[in-house]
Write a structure and sequence with these properties.
Cytochrome Bc1 Complex, Chain D, domain 2, 4-stranded antiparallel sheet, 9 helices, 5-stranded mixed sheet, alpha+beta
Length: 685
């Protein structure tokens, strides 16, 4: 028996080494040339936007309008999470790499539909309170033999692409401040470029380039100036400081570049979209006005040094959370008889921009959704012509788009065959108002927007700004006109992929669909049962074209709402022609009822609980992926002090507020929730 076991052990070791050897033989390092010429290998998806142009247009054509009716599910993988999944996978050497919640990285053999390895950066769960919009991550980058990921708590991590073992790690932010990383890194000329978020909570934004081999910092570009009493980091910051007033640096300033990047190797320019101000309201952060560079801007940087080459500000002096961090696409096209190198963006502010990417000169901009904060973009200056109520200094104004934007982070796509850009857009507005008294709270758990409805002021209403729905738009960037659109029940839907004749997108109702790229006619759909926000990709392995999409409801809107009966675990779905696999069967969620417990509290205690709930709890507990607490089981309230004040559920991402709230405060929050449950029961009866 011992001899048999020894031989069996030796045999297994041989098999293991043979397997590793075969995997190593099949692995081809991702060189600069492969990234530069990604369009020549459409069978792979080598970077977040497929290529440096970020156009998300694949010429693969096995799956087309003539064959789409044979598209079926080939395989799926349960990822074991019920938080938001926003990642775009990348595919190289027949292996798919992607992230799920809490910045976890997965490697999957696409031939078998099986995981090869996973890496968990073990983000401290309390970090969830330092992010505005769920514990999400939008993806990884690949270069040479490494996978790069930014973790939610601000680290940049390099992993061995074959084994998932960590090779190096660097902390990119001050972890004592509410910085976070949710965006995918990019690799340009041997440098890993990583950005950060957190402007809503009060930080100063920047992006950093690190050596891909060693992790050593190469350069850093700040998006807004710091304290002018200290030396400026660059000439760009000295220039920017002239456009700010007051003591903005005490609020952080904002400008976090948390998503969009693109690269033109011919011009040697890296394009980055920057974020909103901290606070949102310019009247507070910069009380004497000013454009507040480089908020809500597209900045073109030299990737060798990080030096600013040019900038274009989409929303000067932003007061509405109108970030310009939305997807940037590069293309060459003829405009009015002249061949132009253009940059295209549909930022939050509702206007679709076409710029000359060589110098940042304005070409055109028109509204792609209903927009009332500005009448137009002046064709001579490229600046918005604001409406009289846009700044809301002494009124409450119903403004469109809302802070979520006419287009959020969900990527759009450009099809060079149809000449159209496909935008996952949103029609939505909200009220902005000047608060009675704004007191900045230096607290990483508190939003400091300096904007809110003031009942003492007059109100400007706009019925068109009161709408709330989504739409997939086919947009002609040359004529700046909508060609077709598809109405969607929710304003929170998925990013898009286009092939020569199709457009693919998932929606909040769990439907994954394909549309005719020219007409918008729906030609195929597949019910995935849970809301979809991530973007699909397509690739080819062993002469088989696949389409994969990650499904996991969440993100900022997913925290507060849901559009399917239940939220299933995050799942990777992969489709191919002739696929016949059945959908996975997940257990049905239990039926919930409003909690019904007796409580005793004075009105002022309920009001205190309401204020605390609004300050610390409401940004998560809205009834989407994170529970509406009025439907909690009675035992939750029996353990309420341990959960809120001692962190007994910290491992699930529930923060510990023991350092912020005393016993009476926690009681008041509990009684406020119970009072709301009672009110809902009375309304139902």
């Amino acid at each position: 028996m011992k001899i048999y076991l020894d031989k069996l052990g030796s045999f297994l070791i041989i098999l293991l080494f043979a397997s590793c050897s075969n995997q190593s033989e099949n692995f081809v390092e991702i060189s600069d040339d492969r990234l530069l010429n990604a369009n020549d290998t459409p069978s792979e998806w080598l970077s977040y936007g497929m290529n440096y142009q970020e156009n998300r247009h694949s010429p693969l054509h096995q799956i087309n309008k003539s064959t789409i009716d044979r598209l079926g599910l080939a395989w799926h993988i349960d990822l074991g999470t019920k938080r938001g999944i926003e990642a775009t996978p990348i595919v190289a050497n027949g292996i798919m790499y992607f992230t799920s919640t809490w910045s976890k990285v997965h490697a999957v053999d696409v031939r078998k539909g099986e995981e090869i390895w996973t890496y968990d950066p073990e983000v401290p769960r309390e970090w969830g309170e330092k992010v505005c919009c769920d514990v999400v991550n939008r993806g990884v980058a690949i270069y040479q033999n490494k996978i790069f990921v930014g973790s939610l708590d601000g680290r940049l991590i390099a992993l061995n692409a074959e084994t998932g073992q960590k090779e190096w790690e660097v902390v990119t932010v001050d972890q004592n401040k509410p910085y976070s990383i949710t965006g995918a890194p990019r690799v340009v000329k041997g440098k890993v470029i990583i950005c950060n978020g957190g402007a809503d909570l009060g930080v100063r934004g920047y992006l950093t380039a690190y050596d891909a081999e060693t992790g050593k910092q190469d350069w850093r570009f700040y998006c807004v100036p710091g304290n002018p009493d200290e030396p400026f980091e660059s000439e760009a910051m000295a220039i920017a400081a002239k456009t700010w007033t007051g003591e903005w640096w005490k609020y952080g300033g904002g400008g976090t570049p948390w998503d969009a990047m693109a690269f033109d190797p011919e011009l040697n320019l890296l394009y980055v979209g920057t974020g909103n101000g901290a606070p949102w309201n310019r009247d507070v952060r910069s009380p004497e006005g000013g454009d507040n560079l480089y908020l809500s801007s597209i900045v073109a940087l030299n990737p060798d040094s990080g030096a600013l080459v040019w900038h274009y500000q989409t929303t000067p002096g932003d007061s509405w959370d109108y970030t310009a961090t939305q997807h940037i696409i590069l293309a060459d096209m003829e405009i009015e008889g002249v061949e132009r190198k253009v940059l295209m963006q549909a930022p939050k502010n509702g206007f679709f921009y076409v710029l000359d990417r060589t110098d940042g000169n304005f070409i055109s901009a028109e509204p792609y959704v209903y927009t009332n904060w500005a009448r137009e973009i002046d064709k001579e200056t490229g600046r918005p012509v604001e409406t009289e109520f846009a700044r809301y200094p002494d009124m409450n104004a119903q403004i469109a788009p809302a802070a979520g934007g006419g287009h959020n982070w969900q990527p759009m796509a450009f099809n060079s065959k149809t000449g159209l850009v496909y935008i996952p857009a949103r029609e939505e507005g909200m009220f902005y108002g000047q608060p009675k008294n704004f007191e900045y709270l230096n607290d990483s758990r508190t939003w400091n927007t300096a904007s809110g409805f003031n009942p003492d002021n007059k109100t400007h209403e706009d019925s068109l700004a009161g709408r709330n729905f989504g739409k997939l738009i086919a947009w002609n960037p040359k004529t700046q006109e909508e060609v077709w659109s598809v109405w969607q029940k929710s304003s929170w839907n998925a990013g898009v992929l286009t092939t020569d004749d199709l457009v693919f997108q998932g929606n909040a109702e769990g439907e994954f669909s394909a549309y005719d790229a020219l007409s918008g006619e729906k030609v195929w759909s597949f019910p995935l049962e849970t809301g979809i926000i991530a973007s699909p990709i397509t690739y080819e392995v062993d002469e088989v074209q696949y389409i994969s999409i990650l499904v996991g409801w969440g993100g900022v809107m997913g925290i507060w709402s849901k559009f399917t009966e239940q939220i299933n675990p995050g799942t990777l779905y992969t489709f191919a022609l002739g696929g016949k696999e059945d959908l996975p069967t997940y257990p049905k969620a239990r039926t919930k009822s409003l909690v019904n417990l007796d409580f005793q509290a004075r009105e002022e205690e309920i009001q205190n609980g309401e204020q605390i709930f609004g300050k610390y709890c409401s940004k998560c507990h809205g009834g989407g992926i994170i529970p509406d607490l009025t439907f909690s089981r009675p035992e939750i309230f029996e353990s309420f002090h341990q959960i809120v004040g001692e962190g007994s559920l910290l491992g699930l991402g529930m923060p510990n507020y023991g350092d912020k709230l005393n016993e009476n405060d926690i009681d008041d929050v509990k009684n406020y929730i119970l009072s709301q449950a009672k009110l809902k029961r009375e309304q139902l009866n």
